[in-house]
Amino acid sequence: MALITKIDDRNLRVNGKLVYRDMDGNWKSRVELTAAEQEALNNYVKD
């Protein structure tokens, strides 16, 4: 299970890892997410 914290409209934290929305609207992370973290992020942003 992943803990997702919304910072603002363009930035989230997934288990403490910064994830940001680029200019094209894609979500990116500088650190690789695990499969569970990626799935949780996908479910979070599609809602």
Fold blueprint:
Blueprint: E1 4-8, E2 11-14, E3 17-21, E4 27-29, H1 35-46
Structure, explained:
- It is a single chain.
- The chain has one helix spanning 35-46; strands at residues 4-8, 11-14, 17-21, 27-29.
- The model has no long low-confidence stretch (mean pLDDT 95).
- The chain has 47 residues and is of the alpha+beta class.
- It has one domain (4-46).
- Strands 1-2-3-4 form a 4-stranded antiparallel beta sheet, with helices on one face.
- It contains 1 helix and 4 strands, in the order ββββα.
Overall pLDDT: 95
Give the biggest sheet.
Answer: 4 strands, antiparallel
Number of discrete helical segments: 1
Query: What is the general shape?
Result: globular
Give a short overview:
With 47 residues, this protein is an alpha+beta fold. The protein is 26% helix and 36% strand.
Features:
single chain, 47 residues, alpha+beta, four-stranded antiparallel sheet, 1 helix, 4 strands, 36% strand, globular
